[in-house]
Amino acid sequence: MLKFVVQCALQQGKSQPTNSQEQLLKDFPTDIRSVCRAFDIDPTIVIYAACPKCSFTHKSICTTSGINVYPSCCQYVQYKGQRSCSVQITKQIVQNGQSVHSPIRPFAYQSFPAFMAGLISCPGMEEILDCGWQGIRKDEISDIWDASAMRELVGIDGKPFSIMVKGEAHLAWCLSVDWFNPYYNKAARKAASVGSMALTCLNLPPSLCYKLENVYVNVIPGPHEPQTDQINHFLQPLVDDLDLCWTKGTWYLRTHLHPGGQQVFLALCNSVNDLPGARKTGGGMGTSGGWISPSTQPSAVLQVRCQQYRHNCESIFHTL
Ligand SMILES: [Zn+2]
User: Fold this and answer.
1) How remote is the CA of residue 288 from the centroid of ligand 1, in Å?
2) Structural domain count of the chain
3) Same domain, yes or no, for 223 and 266?
4) Where are the beta strands (DSSP E) in the chain?
5) What is the 91 CA–ligand 1 centroid distance (Å)?
6) What is the pLDDT of residues 55-73, one digit of tens each?
7) What is the pairing mode between strands 45-50 and 106-110?
8) Is the domain of 274 the same as that of 309?
9) What is the pLDDT of residues 138-194, one digit of tens each?
10) What domain range is 67 assigned to?
């Protein structure tokens, strides 16, 4: 409408529009995409090509023409000396008039440091995040911050993680992995399973912690839940990002409270899942793996598995 008003105003003079006026009308934003570009609202995302069979995620190579190139077949070798999986992972599509290979099962990974940059750039957010550590060391346990595990958490430098030097921020995060049926859970509907990897910042109070704009989410593509250790392929990019943020921290050139820059360290403090999700995320055996026939399994294996099972249950109990 604004473009139309400007166009009408320019035609009032009854003279031919000049080149600059024509350019002004041509460049006039017409939809929400211009706003998203101007404010850099879109998340920073890397598209991986996940294998439909083994779930291995392949990174693309960006060509000079800006087109992402993926291998046509899965290159994952599970054990040394084995042949690669070789299942087709791309299909041909036409993009900008060119025939390109596009992933059959795309996995969109959101950059975690980029998400954090958006979070700490919000006015007022840094003050709230810094307040998280102030509530600890209480006799009465009413929140995760009162738990001894949080108080005794040691950082990469060997000092308590709760102690920050000037110009640093220490954030505690919680990971949650779960699967759901995108067609709802009705028996007559199609059975499928899509996963979510969600990270919530424990420094935020509960009223802000679970707000959609403050939760970091990646979607694990379906149509079925990845089996046992296949979840590792989807967790790998996140683990790499978290590892760097824990060991070296991330330096942000400018934040709302620190125009001269700030270094942010983070710790993944706990993982909240249902039992199958906890087993997969923690690298444990499946939920049906608690029972082992004593006649077919050596007792040592049974003992180790039982210990692992008990450890898993304890960590879930403590988390809850
Ligand atoms: Zn594969």
Assistant:
1) 25
2) 3
3) yes
4) 45-50, 57-58, 61-62, 68-69, 90-95, 98-103, 106-110, 168-180, 194-201, 216-220, 250-252, 262-271
5) 15
6) 899 888 877 777 778 888 8
7) antiparallel
8) yes
9) 677 777 777 778 878 888 888 888 888 888 889 999 999 888 888 776 665 667 888
10) 46-107
